[in-house]
Specification:
- By secondary structure, this protein is α/β, with parallel strands linked by helices.
- It has 15 helices and 18 strands.
- The strands form four sheets. A seven-stranded mixed sheet has the order 10-13-14-9-8-15-16, with helices on both faces. A six-stranded mixed sheet has the order 5-4-3-6-7-17, with helices on both faces.
- It is globular, with a radius of gyration of 25 Å.
- Belongs to the aldehyde dehydrogenase family.
- Keywords: Oxidoreductase.
- Pfam families: Aldedh (PF00171).
């Protein structure tokens, strides 16, 4: 038996003992998780600075602050979420009670990415804890300081039988995916997501896949251009574009193209200075492989703003590119960096063909003052989630499920949806024994007559 076998068996033993089933236990673990974050706040800021050069503003807003909000929301509503849910019973079930119970899956595997290494590790964990599961966490090998800190924090806060961290590279992930988990939650690229799904299918393990895609931002001619530019610059350059829901490319109405580009340049410089590479608060690219991948894109099309890069700091200035099409390599995959291709359109209907080139994006953003056009976009395009006249902010609303569709993901989470993701809705009929209807049985003379009347209502 290898170490993973014994680790999983120990967690299965704890789960089968029923320790995680009560509200008291789960709430206590969530409180411990929050206290863990509070105790290590300075360490968290330091680790994320070392791994990604994240500013304290970005850490608080997109990593720590989000987690505090998620924990508080879960603690506030957890008892209600856990309660059995009574539903109506049909006439054919007279005397019976129908109830939905929220059943934990058991031992879960959480595989997290490098771009938001704290938030995207612990946000799913909140759902796993709330749902009454145990968890084995595999953080990214690319963010060594943050991953090591997560292991240290988890080890000092929770017993290994309940929650533990396993570190390593691809071979470790592959070995974990061969284990008999009860649920797998994966956040990462579509390419790796396919591998996770294939591995899980061999054991029919239920999964959530939080992936990505080429999320468009569409600026129509009636948009408030200055405000659109500000919100797009913020959404695109958060974490230097290394965000799964960052605007990947812009579709701008031809009539406002020039004014939009000018406004966008102005907002970039207002937020990050004229040369963000020299700005200590500007996030770096995660590693040299991704830096090279992104700088290779700079040879395509025509750079209309930015384009500078620094190999030593692994930073790339915010860059706007035009004269590209869907055959360009930059349009073949998710960019995941501070480069924004700009394409134009004349009629709103044209955007359908663009979005279909990389269909089912994780997010879509549309800027227009016309609510009828907004409704048209919502109804006629397929995407995971969207903002009208904003970017990113749908992700921060814990009352909305966050997730993709098709190539951008399977399943959703955040708030109550995290609890639902990590629990099975178990349907139960509690039948009365005080009486029994004879018509349900084949030897009843009136069975067919009664059933016809009941079922054809």
């Amino acid at each position: 038996m290898n170490s993973f076998d014994s680790l999983i068996q120990n967690q299965k033993s704890l789960f089968k003992a029923g320790k995680t089933m009560t509200h008291t236990f789960r709430a206590h673990q969530l409180q411990k998780l929050k206290q863990m974050l509070e105790r290590h706040e300075s360490d968290i800021y330091e680790a994320l600075k070392k791994d990604l050069n994240k500013s304290s503003y970005e850490v608080l807003m997109s990593e720590l602050g989000f987690l505090y909000g998620e924990i508080d929301e879960t603690l506030k509503h957890l008892q209600h979420w856990m309660n059995p849910e009574k539903v109506k019973s049909p006439v054919s079930h007279k005397g019976a009670k129908s109830v939905i119970y929220k059943q934990p899956y058991g031992v879960t595997l959480i595989i997290s990415p490098w771009n938001y290494p704290l938030q995207l590790t612990l946000a799913p964990l909140i759902g796993a804890i709330a749902g009454g599961n145990t968890a084995i966490i595999k953080p990214s090998e690319f963010t060594t300081h943050t991953s090591q800190l997560i292991e240290t924090m988890i080890k000092e806060t929770f017993e290994e039988q309940y929650i533990t961290v396993v570190q390593g590279e691809k071979d470790v992930s592959d070995a974990l995916l061969d284990q008999p988990f009860d649920y797998i939650f994966f956040t990462g690229s579509t390419q790796v997501g396919k591998i996770v799904m294939e591995k899980a299918s061999k054991r029919l393990i239920p999964i959530t896949l939080e992936l990505g895609g080429k999320s468009p931002v569409i600026v129509d001619e009636d948009a408030k251009i200055d405000l659109a530019a500000k919100r797009i610059a913020w959404g695109k350059l958060l974490n230097a574009g290394q965000t799964c829901v960052a605007p990947d490319y812009a579709l701008v109405h031809r009539n406002v193209r020039d004014s939009f580009v000018q406004a966008l340049q102005s907002e970039i410089e207002s937020m990050y200075s004229a040369n963000p590479i020299e700005n200590d608060d500007y996030t770096k690219i995660i590693n040299h492989r991704h830096f090279d991948r992104l700088t290779n894109y700079l040879s395509e099309g025509h750079i209309i703003y930015g384009g500078q890069s620094d190999e030593l700091s692994e930073k790339i200035n915010p860059t706007l590119i035009e004269d590209i099409d869907w055959n360009s390599s930059i349009m073949q995959d998710e960019i995941f960096g501070p480069i924004l291709p700009i394409m134009t359109f004349d009629y709103l209907e044209e955007i359908v063909d663009h979005v279909e080139q990389a269909r089912n994006p994780l997010a879509l953003y549309y800027f227009s003052e016309n609510t009828q056009k907004q409704d048209w976009v919502i109804k006629n395009l397929s995407f995971g989630g969207a903002c009208m006249n904003d970017t990113i902010m749908h992700l921060a609303n814990l009352n909305l499920p966050f997730g993709g569709i098709g190539t951008s993901g399977i399943g959703s989470y955040h708030g109550v949806y995290s609890f639902e993701t990590f629990t099975h809705r178990k349907s139960v009929v509690k039948q009365t024994t005080k009486f029994d209807f004879s018509f349900r049985y084949p030897n009843s003379k009136i069975a067919e007559k009664v059933l016809t009347k009941l079922l054809k209502k």
